[in-house]
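Worked Example 4.2. Consider the chain below.
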Amino acid sequence: MLKRLIEVALPLKEVSEQSAREKSIRHGHISTLHIWWARRPLAACRAVVFASLIPDPDDPECPESFRAMVRELLSRGEFKPKGEANGEPAADTPRNRCLEFIKHLVRWENSNNPEYIEPARKLIAAAHKILHPDADSDAPKVLDPFAGGGAIPLEALRLGCEAHAIDLNPVAHLIELCTLVYPQKYGQPDSRPVPDYIKRLIAHNRAKKTQKDGAGLFDKMDGSVDAEDGEIIPNVEITEAEYRKNPLSADVRYWGHWVLERARQRIGQFYPSESDGSVPVAYLWARTVVCPNPGCKKTIPLFRRPLVSARTGNVVVFGVVFDEGKLTVSLERNPVSSFDVEVGTVRGGSIKCPFCDHSESDRWLQAEGKRKGISDMPLAVVLSQGGRKAYRALRNEEIAWTKGIDVALDRLSTEGGLEAPSEPISDKRPSANSRGLSAVTRYGMTRFKDLFNRRQQLALLEFCFQVRQAANRLEQVVKDDDYQQAIVAYLALAVGRLSDFNSTFCTWSPSGEFLGHTFTRHALGLVWDYAEVNPFSGSTGDWSGSLDWISRVINHCGEILTEPAHVQEGDATRLPLDAGAVDAVLTDPPYYDSVPYADISDYFYVWLKRALGPSAKKTARTPLTPKANEAVMHAGRDGSAEKAKNRYEGMMTQSFCEQHRVLRENGISLVVFAHRTTAAWEALIAALQKSGLIVVSSWPLRTERGSRMIAQDTASLASSIVLICRRRSTAESQGLWNDVRIELQVVAQERLDFFWSQGIRGADFFISAIGPALSVFGKYEGVTKLSGEEVTVGQFLDEVRGLVTSYALEKILHAKHTSTIDAETRFYVVWKWSCADAKVPADEAFKLAQALGMHTEIMWDRTGVLEKSGENVAAVGIEKRKKIKDLGEPSPAGAPASLVDVLHRLCAFREKGDTDGMAEFLARSRQGQNPALWLVAQAISEILPDGDKEKQLMQGLLNQREKLEHEQGRLF
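Applying the procedure from the previous section yields the following structure tokens:
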């Protein structure tokens, strides 16, 4: 069978670099349209789409005509192969030309550059005729049944494919329409005549500019009224040329600012400007409880730290005073150096009253929240003053608008039938690895309206109301129902974006002086002091900013000159496609329990359906997002982790079977997956095995930044694993475990050498080996031992773990034979290399210990290297280990202690500067002359990050090695 390029080669390093770089790119990137979780980088998607749809030009079965086309289209000097292969300069072959081309193709700045996109399209079209000569189109049909945020279908569209995108979630479906259909259908140049309302806007703006005092009329707070029909003309600049270039982008801006002006007229008074013209950017709040101390009973403001601004020369902190029965706030600029800006009233899960020093636990807070609710109080106003931020305390009399807000909310209920979302928040925790929204319910926040204060509720409902009004107005001035719906869809997404920056879970960054948004991770955890945005401010998080981000995405996607994608809201386990209908299935399915999509997307769904109004019947038919057929591991919903795992595996099996059904006989399937736990991989592999798809190749692509929020304190992966699958041949139905193990060792060695050379390390290295191993194990319908017992997926993964662990130890310790080093030390070295100080499910620790031949009970004894943290485990810190009495001493029976215990005891001596004590201990421990001791010290020093205390101590020991060995000789 003619192999695809992706089955044999991929410029891993360059694609990974561009994928990681893309996380910091914003303007026009689809991630800025609206939040969707765990999107894959466009660079990685573009690379795998291209490499999946063309044959390997160096394959002997590849027609010469295709090789000639590669040479012709990729003849430029920049595509000449660079680098080395096996120590020699890379040969100038068609395959290497394609690989060099991919390095340029995946760069963000080349996304819509015809110099790169057109050759890619031509090569894919030519390849399609070769690979599928009976096809009725030049464009290969590419399906993503878990389309999510639309990254894979977008890249398929960009490269000239017929893209099919399916997702069960209505929020994802709306995002897909706004990414894969509307820009391509309505965002093309000169696709619509310039309408009268745009002509009136242009004339209106021209008239303003001719007025002598015109500069004042450009003030954003000023709405202008057209004298002819009383219709608001929004305060936005759109030229005829801009409209002709992209009518959809221009219309979304026009109607978005139309919504803004109408909303400002009705609720702008609740966000008043200062007398000097300064505009409020945000309002800072603290949640409050009453001190339970009977002798105090004062209101406690809950905050992490009293720091408002950390800007040099303008450090601002707040203080709270309880005087005459009232709690007041004051701000102080550049406080004395003794003032601790890091000490708040909430720390480490407990609270401390600033007035009586009484402390209470988080459990008490939860009970108090459920009993009578947690209140809040204003702290300060953040002002925009000449391009810089200024701060002042929020005066109590300024909260007199509360009554006005209630009146305004009643008006919205009467006029538009709009109420704050009372839909329930799920209190079921999805898994030990994921909280979803369940954490907030423990504090009495059980309905979505509880996540917003009254003014935030008003603002969001008002914008929902005005989006509906815009829809009504559009019916009068635009005689195209589908186009009306497209504009309203983007306005609804703008409401969704605003809700992300306008909840009581947004934070203020004192160092950067900016507003943070709600979903910095795949869950909500309670925020004690929060920031409320001014939606009319013209700054980060406001309505006009949302419109700007959205229009940039429309412009970017509109430059993809192609037919729209086929987007459907549907179930991946029941695909609405005929058998053999697609040429390739490329998908990024749910990663087991990593993201509870339905639970967290409900946060946006409740606002989107209010904004969409009557048109919501097409995309928001249910009270909350559908969950019954969602393919995620959700223990809270299914009753137990085991039931949830079985359900996930069953749904993934159905999905892969459906992919197998709709895939052409010689089609290709790609599955992108990332999870560090064995349980997740067991479920995925078992599903693949049952479906008849087999892994023929795989690539680990580094797609994440290590600093992302979800990576902190967890052993999260920076890489996603791309599994390339084909239909299983019936020729190899059964395999013998002994033979399979030998083949596994050969394949694993070769691929691990390659992955190591590519700089893949830690947890990513372990997971990267699963794909190559699956290419051996997965080609059989079943693998059995000589006894006839079937080898399970778990046993297969245990074998892979053992192979990778042995390989990694040899590399880490720079030694071919590591069996002479005790098991606990080997365990510790591998653990620190792969997990560092992160928390990891306990089961993973057991499996690693077994792979190293270590008795698991050793991990938990008095000198064990791990400690439990809830349902997870983590390495015991060096500070704690140094304090263990008699650490590193021989056992009562005379057996030497583990090398890691000896090294940590030496660290304790070193920190005290006790060289003689170190020398004596080394001799007594019977490890003084053991070269493996220093091998381990060197390895630990190399694998730990710069600045790590243990690394510094190990480096110090290594520097003292010669002296210590001399002292031992002198003393003993």
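Residues 214-228, 706-715 have pLDDT under 50 and may be disordered. The longest strand covers residues 279-290. Compare this with Example 4.1 before moving on.
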